[in-house]
Amino acid sequence: MSVQFATARSTGFRLSALALAIAVSIPVAAQAQQPEVVDVIGQAAQLEQALDDQRRANTIKSVVHADAIGQMPDDNAAEALQRIPGISVERDQGEGRFVRVRGLGSDLNSVTINGTLVPAPEDDRRAVAMDVLPSELIQSLSVVKTLTPDMDANSLGGTIEVESLSAFDHDGLFYSLSAEGSHDDNTGKNSPKLSGAFSNRFSIGDGIDNFGVAAALSWQEREFGSDNVETGGAWDFDDGDRLGKLEQRRYDITRERTGFGLNLDYRPDEHSEIWLRSLYSRFKDDEVRQSMVTKFADPQLAGELSDAEVSRKLKARTDTQEVKSFVFGGKRQLGDWGVNAQAGYSEAGEKNPGGIASAAFEGDFADVGYGGMRKPQLQAGQNIYDPSNFSLAEVEWEKHRTTDTEKNIKLDLTRDFYLNSMPSRLAFGGKLSRRQKDNDLDVWIYEDFDTLGFSAEQLNMPGFTRGTTDYGLGRFGPAISDNAVKDLISGLNRDEFYDEQESRINDFTIEEDINAAYVMNTLDIDDLRIIAGLRYEGTRMKAQGTGLDENGFFANNTSKKYDHWLPGLHGIYQLNDKTQIRAAWTNSVVRPTFGQLFPGFVLDDDEAEFGNPNLKPLESANFDLGIEHYMGRAGAISAFVFYKDIKNFVYTADIAGTGAYTDFSEAITSVNGDSAKVYGLELAYSQKFSWLPAPWNGLLLNANGTFTRSDADIEQFDPDLGSMRSRSISLPGQSDITGNLTLGWENDRTSLRLSANYKSDYLHEVGSVLDKRYDYTVDDQLFVDFSASYFLRENLQVFFEAQNLTDESYYVYTGKRRYNSQYEEYGPSYKIGLTLNHF
């Protein structure tokens, strides 16, 4: 009595027309009907398939699909996601990296690959850098915004689901090979990229095409750079707008990405399936950062001149991030019963085998100042650009390794039955997951070189230079040679310079064991589908680190357990065959980041800065209500409202003057806030204008906007009042407005797309709980991209892309927009390439 759930009832959320690939082609004037190729590939086909998935889903979600030739619409997973409703991207060096959902910070989301959680390579974060995943390895991306009880509850904004290529995504033999070259406008450098994907089905035993093999490979080496000027928020607002420090930076980076995936599928009969999914991705950065730090004798106004200490600094090291994921599973339908079992192993890590964290050459100068506030310019004489006025003061050498592993096993059972003639499905199951984050840092600090037998001439900067720094925001001067610095310290006994404090305090292990179980029932009552259930998650956390006080080093170990019962209720009502209403009440729990839980600390007299392994997890009750209407090819319109009631959100505060830190002048740590509210509206529209006369019948439009507000109260002890003082803030990382607009056009040979992505400013970090003038805010950003492709032959395509056409910068300000904290610009980039395919 296996129940078949009606597609119309199952229709899932098309929450928005994933503003992703829509744009495209030169129609043939006499043709009223689109050529057949458009039904197979192109922006409209991508969007149509994504909308179909969203419509049938039991959850509110947005989807991005690869097209028939295996191409995602953007270079990496983060940039592919950024065009769907409610999604914005945190960029690093101009590339999309971390994903924020509904304006909420990226650490409040989770990422899965083929159903298993992806850990984070960075030592302090939970957020997964999505640019580690090349788009060639991905078949589809989904952002689930309302969780059902059978899903992990560890996301507040949404769960990002990555599905890699399967041989059953195509009929028979499929392959796609691409080669491209890109140009970075900032550096003037050109970079190569190669990628390919393959899949085919084979017959095993008595079956026909029942065994599938799919593989994908991607390699890219990209040279790029950026120019930066920042104050770090070193403003003194109590005596006019005075600045204490100014830093200029130049980044030159060679980034190499390598990705590989191999997937095996076996379907012995129509009721059974076994699969093995594997994915490996490596992200390697060779980074050289030249900087000049000016510390004024006293904070001063723009245009004033005074004495200053100037440091010319170098950072030169190689960081490699790796993500590995393996999933083995199977499912079987036994009459009315269904069984689905899966085991997963994921590992993410970051490794620096040893490099220059900082090499500083110092000098003292008179008559130094600055002009401007958003992009402050250094004002100084010629002597500050003469390397002979600087001497080597310190070299910091660093070796670092972070490993984050997640192992899990889960079992899901379903039972189809009728309840008073109404189709129903009972689902229940459980999951065991074991996660461990290890961080190992070793630091060597070389200083006091004059006591080591080096002469003043040997330490003078001219012997360490290699030309002039290419800096686009003003004058900079000579560049420091990393090889010269390495040669100097290579002859020293490194054991004598080992920094035990920095090395031991930053080492930690955090274990997180989660046992989960759920029960859920789906019931169809005519045109209404109801999904109700309950999830249990029991968490055990252990943190092991090292503390340092006046008595020396000591072990700082913390262990805690907590339980959560998380009910959920979803409703989907089919108004007609094209329109449906969705409503959901869900509950989620998000653990603090590893940086916030960090167990190491140093008590230095009356000052301290440390993590807080005793933090409570964030708990949120979430409410969603919306309507979606589907119309024609790649056409949909939707509107959703949402509300989140959050407890125990986390922020940074100075707890000096309270509890055990009553006699401290400063004690910076992470603390739990009481409650926060998030509410918003999502609107989305997409359409292919097929009914228009040629050439306008190739037009596509995709637009969406998300309007979000949040309110949270933070508090801190005020020594002047002798009591606690509070104020209201927006949640860190939350933009009030995110929006996308994509205009496309396509026919059987040509595809064009012009897209814009916008996010409003957001609170980056609370600088001072007691004084909002020192808060750090990221300014709004608008990125405009253009892409075009043309089929030279049926299986040969040429493509062109231009990114960041408006040369958008990254700007963080302190308090008010005119006060710089960080300004960085990257310039546009361009690429051109060829794709050969068979499908």
Q: Mind telling me the CATH superfamily name?
A: TonB-dependent receptor, beta-barrel domain
Radius of gyration: 28 Å
* CATH topological fold name: Maltoporin, Chain A
Mean pLDDT: 89
**Domain tally:** 1
Which spans of ≥5 residues are poorly predicted at pLDDT below 50?
1-40
What does the main sheet amount to?
Answer: 22 strands, antiparallel, barrel
Question: How far apart lie the N and C ends?
Answer: 38 Å
- Percent helix range: under 10%
Percent of residues in β-strands: over 45%
Number of helices: 7
Look at the structure and give the CATH class: Mainly Beta
Using the 3D structure, state the CATH architecture.
Answer: Beta Barrel
* Overall body shape: globular
Category by helix and strand content: mainly beta
Family: Belongs to the TonB-dependent receptor family.
Keywords: Cell outer membrane, Membrane, Receptor, Signal, TonB box, Transmembrane, Transmembrane beta strand, Transport
Pfam families: Plug (PF07715), TonB_dep_Rec_b-barrel (PF00593)
Membrane topology: Multi-pass membrane protein
